[in-house]
Amino acid sequence: MFKSKLLIFVVFILIAALFITPASMAASDSNGVSLKLDKDEVLVFQADEITDDSILLERAKNGICDGPAFDAKATLTKDGVEKNSDKIKVYFTVQKLQSKKNSKTDKTTDLYKQTSYAIIPLSALAYDPDTDSDWDQTGAIKATSSIYYEGSSCYLDSKTRNGFRITKIAGVWNRYDSTVTWKNSKIGFWQQAFYSFKSDCSSNLSRTLGYDEAKPSSGIPTSGTTYNMNPSNPNGYYFTNDSGDQNRANMKIDLVRSGNTWNFMFANFLRDSQP
């Protein structure tokens, strides 16, 4: 009889555990990224992350954004001079993945993923695109940059500040033409603000955080492989303003064709304009 009661009790505890979520437990993740639920916080929205690249690219080409729409900028330089950047096609899309709400303060925090594409045609890598008619206009290189970030706001200095906290970035290089080689691949991020704020709206003065990493360590990426970075960000949420503060993810690589080297940089911005 005692063993039967003990067994029933153990089964009851196991079933109850399935329905009890600790307050500090993270919500169901999106590609390894999720909102952490602290005390008095509940998840009020969750969507399945779109991971199919063809669907994402189509969304980007159609300008579909489920949240704040920002921008991206791609540049090509040769011998220190920008050249043919206008030939690059840039698209971006935003997915809203999760939202949480504090039941006492009504403060909300959202998790977004912004995916930006830069498609470089062979003509952009021609030594003289005006006379080199053999260059194809189709894409030779595609760069895909994704930022997972939390968006939150606080009332500071008599103004509502909308801030960003980058939690993960991902970069993918795709090469579609064997005549182009590459080296010195890097991904990185940059967050900057006169001050940042934490989840309780306490502020930190003059914060800048950012760095690049060789991905992979050899600097020579495998086409189609995703390279990730999880920034360590103890300072909280950074906001942008007209003074040039920036929040962005970076992708950099050197592209080589017919002995000529082009330096490519792709900036995936969380702001309304670029400097």
Short description:
The chain is mainly β and about 280 residues long. It contains two helices and 13 strands, in the order H-E-H-E-E-E-E-E-E-E-E-E-E-E-E. The model is unreliable at about 10-30 and about 130-135 (pLDDT under 50).
Structure characterization notes:
There is one protein chain. With 275 residues, this protein is mainly β. The chain has one domain (39-269). The protein contains two helices and 13 strands. Strands 1, 2, 3, 4, 5, 6, 7, 8, 9, 10, 11, 12 and 13 form a 13-stranded antiparallel sheet that branches. It starts with a helix and ends in a 6-residue tail after the last strand.
Characteristics:
elongated; mainly beta; 49% strand; 275 residues; 13-stranded antiparallel β-sheet
- Summed over residues and divided by their number, the pLDDT gives a mean of 83
Cα radius of gyration in angstroms: 23 Å
| Oligomeric description of these chains | single chain
How large is the share of residues in beta strands? over 45%
Total DSSP helices = 2
Distance between the termini: 76 Å
Total DSSP E strands: 13
What low-confidence regions span 5 or more consecutive residues with pLDDT below 50? 9-28, 129-135
Overall structural domain count: 1
Sketch the topology as an H/E string, one letter per element.
Answer: HEHEEEEEEEEEEEE
Helix content: under 10%
Which geometry do the CA atoms define?
Answer: elongated
Characterize the largest beta sheet: strand count, sense, and whether it forms a barrel: 13 strands, antiparallel
Class by alpha and beta content:
mainly beta
Signal peptide: 1-26
Keywords: Signal
